[in-house]
Amino acid sequence: MKVWIDGKVVEGAEAKIPVNDHGLLYGDGLFEGIRVYGGRVFRLDLHLSRLAAGARALGIALPGGVGALRAIVLETARAFGASEAYVRLLVTRGEGPLGVDPTTCPSPRILCIVDAIRLYPAEQLARGLDLVTVSLRRPPADVLDPRVKSLNYLNSVLAKLEAKRRGADEALILNLEGRVAEASVANVFVVRDGRLATPPPADGALEGITRRSVLELAARLGFPAEERSLGRADLFAADEAFLTGTGARIVAIRSLDQAELASKPPGPVTRSIDAAFSELVKEPAMGTAL
Ligand SMILES: Cc1ncc(COP(=O)(O)O)c(C=O)c1O
User: Fold this and answer.
1) Sign for the pseudo-dihedral over CA of 91, 97, 100, 101
2) 128 lines ligand 1 (CB under 6 A)
């Protein structure tokens, strides 16, 4: 593992942050999970622009702006030296006295961690994921906006914990109106009669970059695709369903609340989207070369 911290790249074990960083004390900060495929950082500009939007929402001035963050990601990924890698970029509120007040923290801290990618177990990918609808709901935007990829991930952590305790692989999280928001750290798609649908961000979904890539690929492949509100019934009625995320990529869903979906996963549409995504990540226009 290589880590960019305080202006230089060090080995993972050497990277330490002070305990008075408000990222640790209050989850006050932001992060991005980014992949390196074939020596190119996949859709780096989209990740940086999502981070910059989150920083504006939290009132954090990015030190050096997006340009500095881009250079830090590339420097750390180069130091790691592998053509396939996972990048975790963090911006915390920085150090300050005890007390939630962010105005007491003069300078945000940037951290960039690059490590080998940890994939879903192959056996789980092959059989498809079992989801349960968890009791915990995604907070609405006027409580904690799910579109901001902040360091405050307890909602996802507790949703995942509930899913695991109930014997499932992953959580289906609803919003307060009972509409599907997303999974713990991935977006949800359903496929019915060859048409794709995914919940709109207003229903509590992060504007995932894999989600966006899948919507673009659906258009290229000629599958009609739309953002629309979904209920659990849409999953039960689906021919296929899958999750998307930087870590997970595209993972078929086998069941929801112990009811198996119509197609044995991965279904034909999921397979063609997945194959197209594997080609997309190799396209030079999609990545920033190390
Ligand atoms: C809550 C949440 N939803 C969805 C996603 C998927 O987004 P992306 O495809 O940009 O990784 C993530 C990624 O970490 C996430 O944390």
Assistant:
1) negative
2) no
Does the beta carbon of 231 lie inside 6 Å of ligand 1?
no
pLDDT, tens digit, 9 for 90 and up, residues 197-225: 999 999 999 999 999 999 999 999 999 99
pLDDT value for 57 = 97
Angstrom distance (rounded) from CA 69 to CA 82: 20
Q: What is the mean pLDDT of each run of 10 residues along the chain (290 residues)?
A: 97 97 98 98 98 98 96 98 97 98 98 90 89 98 95 97 97 98 98 98 97 98 98 97 96 97 92 97 96
Q: Which residues pair with 133 in a beta bridge?
A: 172
Type of residue found at 241: A
104 alpha carbon to ligand 1 midpoint, in Å? 30
CATH of 122-280, one of 3.30.1850.10, 3.40.50.300, 3.20.10.10, 3.40.50.720: 3.20.10.10
**Which of 134, 138, 187, 215 most suits a substitution to test ligand 1, by most atoms within 8 Å of the C-beta?**
187
Residue pair 61/108 in contact by the 8 Å Cβ criterion = yes
Query: Residue 25, Cβ neighbours under 10 Å: how many?
Result: 18
Minimal-distance CA residue to ligand 1 atom 4: 186
